[in-house]
Amino acid sequence: MAAPKVAVVGAGVIGLSTALCITETCPSCSVTVLSDQFSPNTTSDVAAGMLIPHTYPGTPIHVQKQWFKETFTYLFDISNSAEASEAGIHLVSGWQVFKNTPKEELPFWSDVVLGFRPMSEAELQKFPQHQFGQAFTTLKCDCPPYLLWLEKRLKATGVQMYTRRVVDLWDLHSEYNVVVNCSGIGAHQLVGDEKLFPIRGQVLKVHAPWVKNFIRDGDGLTYVYPGIHRVTLGGTREKDVWNLSPDPGTTQDIFDRCCSLEPSLQEAQDIKVKVGLRPSRQRVRLQKEVFSQGGLKLPVVHNYGHGAGGFSVHRGTAKEAARLVRECIAALQGSSSRAKL
Amino acid sequence: MRVAIIGAGVIGLSTALCIHEQYHGLLPSLEVEVYADHYSPHTASDGAAGLWQPYLSDHGNLQETVWNKETFDYLLGHLGSPAAKEMGLYLISGYNLFTQPVPDPSWKNIVLGFRNLTPKELELFPGYSYGWFNTALMLECRSYLPWLTNKLTQGGVKFFHKKVESFQEVSGDGVDVVINCAGMRAGELQPDPELQPGRGQVIRVLAPWVKHFIVTHDIKSGIYNSPYIIPGREFTVLGGIYQPGNWSEENSAQDHKTIWESCCRLLPALQNAKIVGEWSGLRPARPCVRLERETIPHGHFQAEVVIHNYGHGGFGITIHWGCAMAAARLLGTILQEKKLARSPQPRL
């Protein structure tokens, strides 16, 4: 097989980073990205892009930690380089505060982020409703910049990107040798995955350039994440809700909760409201599958279901998916050479 | 009772406010006046990035450490108030970097969350092998000085736009106490060989992805002669110039090059930052802050009472409120003395 043709379905952070990893591990591959949405209209564009992992109940912790570590290291190097601002990657320090001391005081990722330690009494005084907290420095991937930077790097290696709504992965079998399914919440319909469900998140993106630190309530519901130009205020976690329209009552509620964490947000300007559906699953679906119809086969690599933790593990899962793609190509080349015999 | 403050930088205006707040209720006849030839945004205070951070060592000057702490605590108390944005006040975290281990600073327990840098963090800063992380405050004078001015105006304090040439000029006009907050030019009111300029230059850039202050230190070159990057609300300040004895307020191309190259080495992404301004100013440097009262006699029967509050070098914002309160206390003593002088002697 001269130049194996790989289609990546989906152009959010998972699709684009997976496509990039494939070009890195398989330089002879011809990679194409197909998606009905590109930045700034993907789920990733709504997210703040903070590197604070979500825990998947169905994936071993050491695997999640490995994914997070790979992602953090990759982004750390970019944040340290001249490309940091273009890629939208920057360091941010802040606090995770708890109303009640959590049972698990040390999350699995505490030694991956920088400077992780419990908050001092003096620091906690800023949060009178909270008893305990953790201070650390982590990375943030601002979107659209990060996705646009990925797109730019993909185009530089010759990857083509097309706006196309794929309704059935099998439709791609005649044009491509391997299909990579990074369709996020779209996988619910695209491959009929009933284990994939949305967790609706509404956020506000506001102008408050004096907010330089992040604040996150340990319950994961209320957070203040300063980005390059805007601060993301969140949020909600509404299971099985598919509605993409902003809800005004929710907007007010998010604003109030964030102001109680950071009173200066009362002066925030130019409030924009966004909604995204976290593509949630017990575990990330990261596995090969072979579709077959009428004697024809199509190897598929699934890489979706990252829920609330897409940014935190994207590079790690992309590398794993690229490895699976190589296995698929090797298998195809093996069987095609056998066919020639 | 007329009190005149000379100087409308952070020291002059905060001293005026502190005095007004403490005494206008107790002494309804108190008139506070501010005299200055430069007001915000044309003062030295306006050029400062606004980071609350004392020098590395207080040289045993515990008084200054106390004033620094009083200022930090005062500002921290205002953080949650609605005035914070108007004051230009907010929290900021960041890094102090060294090429060798150094003793902890006098202010380690004043700031929040002070700790040493981990090896992983030091990877961000090649060439530096030791450092601190802490959360401190920013107080942008471009906002703070107008906020102070507003509060003073609301309180009935009068402002005069003039260059005061001597204490006599003001006291001869009927002012009872003069407060000398003239900063760099205090020497023109009364020669002070210990007051010398510490010239600084800064480049202002748009780099909104920078969320931390980064202050490097070169023990040999001295304070602020090593690159620093301080992100504000609207722009990020790049600096690292401290030239003792240089009175020039003109931007120097050589200093621009020094700042730009050293800051870009520290944070490579700055190469893409758009430059939006450049500024030079003179830090009013002195071995220690001059904060004391003086009675200057004129002939046999007259004397002018002066409270000096100048020589805050590169830590004016950091120390301003502690000094304002100390100056107000000195004024209180003077007011007490004057009251005693006027009231009849009780029960001899």
Explain how this protein is built.
The complex is a heterodimer of chains A (341) and B (348). Chain A has 341 residues and is an alpha/beta fold. Helix content of chain A is 31%, strand content 29%. Chain A has one domain (5-335): Rossmann fold. In chain A, the strands form 2 sheets. In chain A, strands 3, 4, 5, 8, 9, 10, 11, 12 and 13 form a 9-stranded mixed β-sheet that branches. A 6-stranded mixed β-sheet of chain A has the order 6-2-1-7-15-14, with helices on one face. In chain A, strand 14 (285-293) and strand 15 (296-304) form a beta hairpin. By secondary structure, chain B is of the alpha/beta class. Chain B has helices at residues 10-23, 44-47, 62-78, 84-87, 119-122, 141-154, 167-171, 186-189, 253-266, 316-342, and strands at residues 2-6, 31-36, 89-98, 112-116, 130-139, 158-161, 177-180, 196-206, 212-216, 228-231, 236-239, 243-244, 274-285, 290-298, 302-310. In chain B, the strands form 2 sheets. In chain B, strands 3, 4, 5, 8, 9, 10, 11, 12 and 13 form a 9-stranded mixed β-sheet that branches. In chain B, helix 3 (62-78) crosses helix 10 (316-342). The longest helix of chain B has 27 residues, at 316-342. The two termini of chain B are 28 Å apart. The model of chain B has no long low-confidence stretch (mean pLDDT 95). Classes of the chains: A alpha/beta (341), B alpha/beta (348).
